From TrEMBL:
Keywords for the protein's UniProt record, in alphabetical order: Carbohydrate metabolism, Cell wall biogenesis/degradation, Cellulose degradation, Glycoprotein, Glycosidase, Hydrolase, Polysaccharide degradation, Secreted, Signal
Compartments in which it is found: Secreted
Name recorded for this polypeptide: Endoglucanase
Native source species: Camelina sativa (False flax)
Encoding gene per record: LOC104704075
The keyword Nucleotide-binding belongs to this UniProt entry's keyword annotation: no
First-level EC class: hydrolase
SUPFAM superfamilies linked to this entry: Six-hairpin glycosidases
Catalytic activity: Endohydrolysis of (1->4)-beta-D-glucosidic linkages in cellulose, lichenin and cereal beta-D-glucans
InterPro entries the record matches: 6-hairpin_glycosidase_sf, 6hp_glycosidase-like_sf, CBM_49, Glyco_hydro_9, Glyco_hydro_9_Asp/Glu_AS, Glyco_hydro_9_His_AS
Organism classification: Eukaryota, Viridiplantae, Streptophyta, Embryophyta, Tracheophyta
Active site: residue positions: 409, 461, 470
Gene3D superfamilies assigned: 1.50.10.10
Amino acid sequence: MGSVSAALLLLLLCFPVAFSGHDYGQALSKSLLFFEAQRSGVLPRNQRVTWRSHSGLTDGKSSGVNLVGGYYDAGDNVKFGLPMAFTVTMMAWSVIEYGDQLRANGELGNSIDAIKWGTDYFIKAHPEPNVLYGEVGDGNTDHYCWQRPEEMTTDRKAYRIDPSNPGSDLAGETAAAMAAASIVFRRSNPVYSRLLLTHAYQLFDFADKYRGKYDSSITIAQKYYRSVSGYNDELLWAAAWLYQASNNQFYLDYLGRNGDAMGGTGWSMTEFGWDVKYAGVQTLVAKFLMQGKAGRHAPVFRRFKDKADFFMCSLLGKGSRNIQKTPGGLIFRQRWNNMQFVTSASFLTTVYSDYLTSSRSNLRCSAGIVAPSQLLSFAKSQVDYILGDNPRATSYMVGYGNNFPQRVHHRGSSIVSVKVDRTFVTCRGGYATWFSRKGSDPNLLTGAIVGGPDAYDNFADRRDNYEQTEPATYNNAPLLGVLARLSSGHSGYSQFLPAVPAPVVRRPMPIRKPRVTTPVRASGPVAIVQKVTGSWVSKGRTYYRYSTTVINKSSRPLKSLNLSIKNLYGPIWGLSRSGNSFGLPSWMHSLPSGKSLEFVYIHSTSPANVAVSSYTLA
């Protein structure tokens, strides 16, 4: 008995040491490496995940548009727009809230690079104001094959939404991503920041005007990323981010006018992720309320905050309807990739804890008053579970700790690198040779957060166990901010310190009815008409948005066109550019007889001088 008691005492003394002291800075650095492993396109020279190489180099070519770049979502080789946009939004939110902490860890630059890899792709995917490409590749044919992304032979068809085939959820989430990212780049790259914000304005208008679910237009996505929640949450989410990015009253009014009708004040949520954004919207609007920005919308915004409080209380187990937890303390939503909900909920509790602290408020739950520190402690408990403080003593971040998944459901990591062995891996041969292997992955997918354990903390490290061993970008993205925050300690923190941009005088978007129209100019069969479609004031200067229409008045198609544009002092969209000459956009092979194309530009003076240099008729 004495020896047993001594052993128990020793175990109790050692327990706190074994389950404490995680290196959150190291975990943060590793989590960012995962995004480099998920890159599609031409990899940069400073690529740190060296077993990867260039891939998807013809994406979009069959549709006449350049869609090279972006991220593969998980363990396959498809680029799904909705989860990719959510990934970028959450990475940007992490930088906005915890940029100083990321800088202190030496990871701010890598975080910004990860965001820009996504936004550069979204710029390409949004070639026209009301066109957005939302998927490259086909999940059905992709899942039939097990190949490295560098040599995949699967279908790379591009799928898009437009006014005839709308997708308000997809366009809204992409608008949110672009708006959030514009805040990240505001100081370091103001020109790029303004470009992102312009895309965000256009995407929001597109989403709001042409309403519909994206998976009703891109039906191939239904099996993989079905939009169960619809699009109202994304419209509110995009409006909240556009308000935060622009300080424009229009978007605050949008939240106030539509919060009730669109479910922002009605849905009591117990999840937050790439599909359902309500808890995120409620958290952001609660922040606006605590910052004193609600104005006449205060009653509506208080209802938003009540729902944010409900979400936080349910996570803590102090609400009227609490979220299920495993015996080891991990919140549990579903068997397939449960960890996505763990990381996103942990992020919301982290920022909400800091919002409440900054406003000197407490959380009011049905079980009583809760201090903000309990929310941060909850987030820490979830992160610690992920990093190994769990009944299995397993780290669910690949490469962190001594016991982590070795057989990840991921094509690139499970097949020998093309740089090591260039022997072609066939579509079905990959399953026979590499997928079915019992050994560890030849390439370490450092930083990847896998799907995680089941409701009883059980986990099977098998490559065919995709529900538990497949990683995803949207698992990692929310964790950036949480890890940065946890690595910084608890002292001297205020979420309301970052400066906001000066308010604009009016909504900086195209006004549907043109105000000024310049005379039609014609050069042979090509006519050009320009009009001012919007104006706004920023920092004392008036900016104008010009819409220019090029009309083919010939009886034959216009095969090629070169335009000369002089006195242009701002960004331009809708044309291809070669030096000082402008031509038909890359997606348009010719301009049919009697048809027109539109391009837009923004600057702060009278219209640019647009003239036809040359043209060719078919």
